[in-house]
Amino acid sequence: MLTMKKADYEKILAHAKENLPEEACGLIAGTKDGDKKIIEKVYLLENMDHTNEHFSMNPKEQLAAVKDMRANHLVPLGNWHSHPESPSRPSEEDKRLAYDPTVNYLILSLMDMDQPVLKAFDIDKEKNVTIEELVIQ
Question: Which domains does the chain have, with CATH numbers?
Fold first, then answer.
């Protein structure tokens, strides 16, 4: 189970909307206690591809985020990105680029701007996708 504060969800949503029509992206960090993962911090990064079909995170921003995680005793929990025009599910490219089976991949669909959908996924080494329970509180 993955838990997120409503304020962090709103931060991701605002960043995704600001970057339309491009995909937005970032990292998530927090704490782990067995199967329970709590997102303590959301990082908003630049999509260096500047496209609505895929994303590449800015390496300098990624490094700064990792340094911040270490300084705040947080562990990397995964990443997030938006799908401006498609459902909240990993694309074939998302699966191909999912290199770490120990983290979560969050996807925010903005297909219906009035009802955005954020889901969390696990993607294993064989590229099998399962939905991780995501609680926003």
Answer: 2-136 (3.40.140.10)
